[in-house]
UniProtKB/TrEMBL annotation:
UniProt organism field: Roseovarius nanhaiticus
UniProt xrefs under PANTHER family: 50S RIBOSOMAL PROTEIN L9 (PTHR21368)
Record lineage: Bacteria, Pseudomonadati, Pseudomonadota, Alphaproteobacteria, Rhodobacterales
GO MF annotation terms: rRNA binding; structural constituent of ribosome
Name of the featured protein: Large ribosomal subunit protein bL9
GO cellular component: ribonucleoprotein complex; ribosome
Similarity field: Belongs to the bacterial ribosomal protein bL9 family.
Spans annotated as Disordered: 184-206
Matching InterPro entries: Ribosomal_bL9, Ribosomal_bL9/RNase_H1_N, Ribosomal_bL9_bac/chp, Ribosomal_bL9_C, Ribosomal_bL9_C_sf, Ribosomal_bL9_N, Ribosomal_bL9_N_sf
Amino acid sequence: MQVILLERVAKLGQMGDVVDVKPGFARNYLLPQRKALSASERNIADFEARKAHLEAQNLETRKEAEAMAEKLNGQQFVVIRQAADSGALYGSVTTRDAADAANENGFTVDRKQVSLGAPIKELGLHDINVSLHPEVDATVTLNVARSPEEAELQASGKSIQELAAEEEAAADFEIAELFDDIGSAASDDEDLAEAVEQQSEEDDDA
């Protein structure tokens, strides 16, 4: 099926290009999203008549998107979730969660603009893409943690695995110190017992 693009579409073409696509892709995505029109003679003529207006409109929206991208790029948003000690989430973080996190921080992002790249199923820092315009993207980071305190540690560069290793090492150190104290106390008891026994022997000799 041939369509005429009303805006740039990744891997397809630029505004005004007539391209061949699968009918299902056109009917289910391009046409209802107003990203394209079927390439009939009438639609092509209509596009040519409106081309200057569409290009001016596209330029304006692109400038607005670029201004927002400057503010959004590099932002980090915290998402609190329950997870196992291994870091595996009880569930996953969705595009809606990502959009909500951005909106809570004063930005306007729709979940349809968010691309996770891969499902987020673990704690940690995850870079995601936000498509603000067909020609403008921004990259933000989701800091997925079990608590605000854990999120701060992750933001400083420590992973959940490193935090767990540090806690385990600290626990092992405390246990080792406890056994050292017990051993030292036992040694002191033995010394005391020997001293008492020696004194008793001296008293008997006297």
